[in-house]
């Protein structure tokens, strides 16, 4: 793996929301190639309502059609009820063999039954999973070089795993954008000047948050991207105050402008909570830490803690384990590797 990968390039690829789906996956696979461990990159999307669940695959580098075929064939054999659990989003890059072993232990299934379908076996690989497991997720898989078996307890390189985990928050945000109507709520210059704003983005607090986010994203794209790519990803948060996503637009009249789009979480099973509490509770129920939720929503840690306490009180739970059981997202694989960072 190159010492200086470009995770910001992968974030930018994620927000190419107007590309056809397969072209978008191909761009993700290519942009993630810096993180390959020798077997290329496979980018694929998962629709739990679809027979076979895989609805798009793209390869890059040394990833082969045989690898892609094995992934889709084995995935097609997963029990439908387990698909959302198997493809629940990860906070780091996870060891796939470890994830399926944990799931097998909890459900009483045979690990071999999950890893194999017919003559095909799931390739040795790590994976980053992003999105909503009930609707659609996207997976970036990093297979090992051909002939190398991956021990179930071997973790992905630590720093790259954490950085890609943050990129995963952007992948999830991008998936939601691709499923929305695509209305623009605000247009800003790269310097942070608000050039246009719809009603939801006109308030002083909203405008200030958007301006700060644009400046941070531009800093991430600029000198910080070259100097410290991992810090650049930290600077460019996935959402702005849990409400908007900042994405690049095409040039207009020779000038580059940035778009802000509303990008809400839709959680119909949490109606007793406020929308703010609901999005925090939902992310925590998927196994994410408070720190990661703060990054994804672009909010201070204190705000996350406050909203989570409100959700605990209204749902009548006292800890995270009870919240996960209450919401039905008891994912044995929510911790994505045997030695999570």
- Major pleated sheet: 5 strands, antiparallel
Structural class: alpha+beta
Tally of contiguous helical segments: 14
CATH class category name of the largest domain:
Alpha Beta
| Strand order across the largest sheet | 2-1-7-6-3
Spans with pLDDT under 50 lasting ≥5 residues?
A: 330-341
Helices and strands, in order, run as: HHEEHHEHHEEEEHEEHHHEEHHHH
CATH architecture of the largest domain: 2-Layer Sandwich
State which percent range the strand residues make up.
15-25%
Globally, the shape reads globular
CA-based gyration radius: 20 Å
| Share of helical residues | 40-55%
N-to-C span: 19 Å
Oligomer: single chain
| Number of strand segments | 11
Overall pLDDT, averaged?
86
Looking at the structure, the CATH topology of the largest domain is: Beta-Lactamase
| Whole-number count of domains | 3
């Amino acid at each position: 793996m190159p010492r200086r990968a470009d995770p910001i390039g992968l974030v930018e690829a994620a927000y190419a929301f107007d590309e056809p789906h397969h072209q978008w996956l191909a761009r993700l696979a290519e942009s993630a190639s810096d993180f390959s461990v020798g077997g290329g990159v496979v980018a694929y999307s998962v629709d739990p309502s679809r027979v076979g669940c895989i609805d798009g695959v793209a390869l890059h580098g040394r990833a082969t059609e045989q690898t892609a075929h094995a992934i889709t064939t084995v995935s097609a054999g997963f029990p439908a009820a387990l698909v959302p659990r198997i493809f629940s989003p990860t906070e780091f890059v996870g060891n796939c063999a470890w994830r399926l072993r944990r799931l097998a232990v909890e459900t009483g299934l045979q690990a071999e039954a999950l890893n194999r379908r017919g003559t095909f076996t799931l390739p040795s690989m790590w994976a980053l999973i992003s999105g909503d497991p009930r609707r659609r997720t996207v997976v970036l898989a990093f297979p090992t070089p051909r002939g190398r078996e991956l021990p179930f307890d071997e973790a992905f390189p630590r720093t790259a795993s954490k950085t890609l985990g943050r990129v995963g928050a952007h992948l999830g945000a991008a998936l939601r954008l691709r499923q929305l109507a695509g209305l623009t709520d605000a247009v800003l210059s790269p310097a942070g000047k608000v050039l246009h704003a719809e009603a939801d983005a006109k308030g002083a607090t909203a405008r200030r948050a958007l301006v700060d986010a644009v400046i941070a994203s531009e800093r991430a794209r600029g000198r910080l991207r070259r100097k410290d790519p991992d810090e650049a990803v930290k600077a460019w948060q996935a959402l702005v105050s849990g409400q908007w996503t900042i994405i690049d637009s095409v040039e207009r009249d020779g000038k580059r402008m940035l778009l802000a789009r509303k990008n809400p979480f839709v959680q119909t099973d949490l109606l007793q909570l406020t929308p703010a509490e609901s999005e925090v509770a939902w992310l925590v129920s998927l196994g994410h830490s408070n720190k990661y939720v703060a990054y994804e929503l672009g909010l201070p840690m204190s705000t996350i803690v406050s909203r989570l306490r409100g959700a605990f009180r209204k749902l009548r739970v006292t800890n995270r384990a009870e919240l996960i059981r209450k919401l039905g997202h008891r994912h044995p694989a929510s911790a994505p590797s045997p030695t999570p960072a």
